[in-house]
Amino acid sequence: MASTAEEAAALVETSKCLAAYQAVKDHLRPEYTRIGIGSGSTVVYVVNAIAELGPSVTSKMAFYPTGSQSEELIEAAGLNLHYISKLPAGQQLDVAFDGADEVDDDMNLIKGGGACLWQEKIVAASAKRFVCVADFRKLSGRLGTAWKKGIPIEVLPMAAPRVLDELRRMGSLNPRIRPGLPGKAGAIVTDNGMWIIDAPFAPLLLLKDTESGTQAGNGADGLWTVDALADKLIKLPGVAEIGLFYGNNGLEVASGAQKPVAAYFGMADGTVQIKTPGT
Ligand SMILES: O=C[C@H](O)[C@H](O)[C@H](O)COP(=O)(O)O
């Protein structure tokens, strides 16, 4: 048990590192040529693990970023930078690695804690296999249990007040525009020139929670399933993309999947817990 804040922070970093190295070992095959690289602090270890494989493995690979941070990571590691906008029609990435803010029992994700979610979703959905890397704090039964800051929603700035009104009507508890980092006046601006609204909701139900019929999960009683909430949020005028990754898992040839085929969690005891659909 960590006794100081520094030790606790070090434990989290070690856990991220463990998850990333294991995920790369299990999911980056030498014959792959197109690799998606997500955003956030855990992905830094993914890039380190890939770079350590050396040019004999990586020089034949193209790496696709999800924003300015991962673009810099790829370049700094000496890896080949390519852009998803140039991916030939009908082609997919072999694999994409990315972090998450929270992962539930059904492998739905909250993402966007670092203001990256739109390009992340496009890259994940462009990959044959999307693999999530995280530390033990992200493992949760229901979204909104561990990650209390709210669901990140990327919005057109001029639509933000209207979207906030809609979110309140839907039962969000104090949704707000995310402020910029210290020293930046006004709202945070994403890589896509949008704002982020953080919308807290009561912990989100899984589809299986509604099977008993006791809870509708359609927001009527303030409770939403991930799928019902996500379907509604994405349709709000002014919403560019939402930080809920949901729907089908991407199993091998499926395309357009937002949920990972595997989620790797570095645990506090030094092990790595691997979650796959149905486990
Ligand atoms: O906006 C940021 C991304 O969605 C990240 O992947 C997510 O916030 C997890 O980041 P981290 O690995 O730093 O916890």
UniProtKB/TrEMBL annotation:
Gene Ontology biological process terms in this record: D-ribose metabolic process; pentose-phosphate shunt, non-oxidative branch
SUPFAM superfamilies xref list: D-ribose-5-phosphate isomerase (RpiA), lid domain (SSF75445), NagB/RpiA/CoA transferase-like (SSF100950)
Pathway(s) it belongs to: Carbohydrate degradation; pentose phosphate pathway; D-ribose 5-phosphate from D-ribulose 5-phosphate (non-oxidative stage): step 1/1
Reactions accelerated catalytically: aldehydo-D-ribose 5-phosphate = D-ribulose 5-phosphate
GO cellular component, one term: cytoplasm
InterPro entries named in the record: NagB/RpiA_transferase-like (IPR037171), Ribose5P_isomerase_type_A (IPR004788)
GO molecular function, one term: ribose-5-phosphate isomerase activity
Keywords: Isomerase
UniProt EC number: 5.3.1.6
Family in the record: Belongs to the ribose 5-phosphate isomerase family.
Name of this protein: Ribose-5-phosphate isomerase
Organism name: Staphylotrichum tortipilum
